[in-house]
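Appendix B. Raw example, untouched.
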Amino acid sequence: LLSKIFPDIPKGHESLGLISSNMIANIFGLGNAATPFGIKAMQSLQTLNKNKEEASRSMITFLVINTCGLTLIPTTIISLRMMHDSTSPTDIVLPCIIATFSSLMFGLILDRIFARKDK
């Protein structure tokens, strides 16, 4: 799946592992744990970048994915709802999945539209 989203990254490059680690941490609602992976992924993507003054296509796509933050289990929100005595703290799960998936799809579609315009 990542090779389809990031066609400019060579197979087996370390940035793909860092990107997947970042995405998995975000999917499970561990945003703070995802940050170091995201920083290292951007540094790794910069090594592939020919023009060091501009973000590469892969860097922009990764930023869109990271910003949209697809979340399946919003652990932080659930724990906050539990701390404040919510009667059903996990009721937020389905709305979070729908909202983050929608923002991810919209972001990726816009990313592809702008990528084609740049070419």
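End of appendix B.
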